[in-house]
Design a protein that fits this description.
about 500 residues, mainly alpha, 19 helices, about 75% helix, disordered N terminus
Length: about 500
């Protein structure tokens, strides 16, 4: 089916509103598989952050000293230490300095940066199914080998984490190549939000059960369990996922025709050059990149320093800190899915234009967490209010998933994975800068340092919001359209 030039694609899709996705549709099944894949990758990424508490002597001792004010807790720890040592007689403990731990933690981010852009481009050429599946499989196998690498030396651990970052970089960005061919325009927010919420739920899961696994079985089993889950997820991935609906053996004829007709105006050529110069001059793209930079600035601070902030400001014990640190990810996962549902509802009912929906959710995802962050220093004396604000920051921030996060699918669907790689690169750079700046500010003075951290984060978010509202667009750019050659 070819759509005549000048006919609005969303309008044509509204004629097929009765084909809205349900839990029995194959494209929703793909979203669930991607949800599980993202959940698996984030648990593998965060596993070391949980396990290192038991792996390194210098991180155990402060925990015991901080608990000294609570004598029953100290006694419990002393009593349980014997049984833990007896059960885990072969569990190794390493003398890694805080500087070494910092290098280990950051190595995975550098690995992701190395493959974000090339993997997105290659996925668009050779197909995303095998690119993403290979990345997930490699990350899972490297997770399984992490305990052995730790025994062989810290240098090998850094190499393993860097390689794992490269594998996950392959798996993160290529997903948009699949959605460019599977997600009808009016369902993009819904499907991508279901898939993306796996990262938030995975963070919640690993924070909740990681410590329990380490206590009950030993820290190596954190890597063994989640690495094995990743390998099983790979089997599901290679079985269910296909690059496009036209070649999937299990899709119904009705669903295939619906997807292909809704994407009829989008190009299908596999081999093409990337118009770098046109991209560099495109302000709507820079609006997306700026949004990613602002979004990841505050998100990285919350992910990295949330347990530290809860411990230092609320003065809670280790067990409560772990539970409280996991709560924001429940809100983040919930808001991601609900935001996608609401965005597609507004589009399918023709209540708002596409660009209005993108800017609305971008505004909510940048403005609301900024207000919560600015308010935090003024409510530090209130336990309940502080917890509520800490939960709302990542929750409301994930509303951006229906805004500029998926905007590359609107402006340049042909190059969605390549541009997503660049966008996440901007986000990772923001995360490196923000985490470094946060460490410097709170080392000077805790109270004023945290206040400056949150004020600076709000300022960065406001800059990104204003830039996106000014230059953001939702129309396919001229350089992203397929050019038809006329032969004489």
């Amino acid at each position: 089916m070819r759509i005549p030039v000048g006919v609005d694609v969303p309008f044509m899709c509204r004629k097929n509103a009765k084909l809205r996705p349900n839990f029995c549709s194959l494209r929703c099944g793909l979203a669930v598989v991607m949800h599980l894949s993202n959940l698996t990758m984030i648990t593998q990424r965060v596993s070391l952050s949980i396990a290192i508490i038991a792996m390194v002597n210098s991180t155990r001792q402060p925990a015991l000293l901080n608990a000294s004010a609570d004598e029953p807790l100290v006694d419990a720890l002393r009593d349980s230490s014997r049984s833990i040592k007896e059960f885990n007689t072969e569990t190794s403990v390493y003398e890694w300095s805080p500087e070494t731990q910092g290098i280990i933690f950051s190595s995975i981010s550098y690995g992701i940066i190395l493959t974000l852009i090339p993997s997105g481009y290659l996925a668009g050429i050779f197909g995303a199914k095998h690119m993403l599946g290979a990345g997930l499989l490699a990350s899972s196998l490297l997770t399984l080998f992490t305990p052995l690498a730790a025994d062989l030396g810290v240098s090998l651990v850094i190499v393993i984490r860097t390689a794992q970052g490269m594998a996950q970089g392959m798996a993160w960005t290529g997903q948009f190549t699949i959605w460019a061919k599977w997600a009808p325009p009016l369902e993009r927010s819904k499907l991508t939000s279901i898939a993306g919420s796996g990262a938030a739920f995975g963070s919640f899961l690993i924070l909740c059960v990681g410590g329990l696994i380490s206590q009950a079985l030993g820290w190596p089993f954190i890597f063994y369990i989640f690495g094995s889950i990743g390998c099983m997820c790979c089997v599901l991935w290679f079985t269910v996922i296909y690059d496009d609906p036209a070649h999937h053996p299990c899709i119904s004829l009705r669903e295939r025709e619906h997807i292909l007709s809704s994407l009829a105006q989008q190009p299908t050529s596999r081999r093409r050059s990337v118009p770098i110069k046109a991209m560099v001059r495109c302000l709507p793209l820079w609006a997306i990149f700026t949004g990613f930079f602002s979004h990841f600035w505050l998100c990285t601070i919350i992910v990295t320093y949330l347990p530290t902030y809860i411990s230092s400001v609320l003065h809670v014990n280790i067990r409560e800190s772990g539970v409280l640190s996991s709560l924001p990810y429940v809100a983040a996962s919930t808001c991601t899915i609900l935001g996608g549902q609401l965005a597609d509802f507004l589009l399918s009912r023709n209540l708002l234009r596409l660009i209005t929906v993108r800017k609305l959710f971008s505004s909510l995802g940048l403005l609301l967490p900024s207000l919560c962050a600015v308010a935090l220093p003024f409510v530090a004396s209130s336990y309940l209010t502080t917890i509520v604000l800490l939960i709302l920051i990542p929750g409301t921030s994930n509303l951006c998933d229906s805004g500029f996060i998926i905007n590359t699918l609107d402006v340049a669907p042909r190059y969605a994975s390549f541009l997503m790689g660049i966008s996440r690169g901007f986000g990772l750079v923001a995360g490196i800068i923000s985490s470094t700046a946060t460490g410097f500010l709170i080392s000077q003075d805790s109270v004023s340092g945290w206040r400056n951290v949150f004020f600076l984060s709000a300022a960065v978010n406001m800059f990104g919001l204003v830039f996106y509202l000014t230059f953001g667009q939702a129309e396919i750019q001229d350089w992203a359209k397929e050019r038809t050659l006329t032969r004489l």
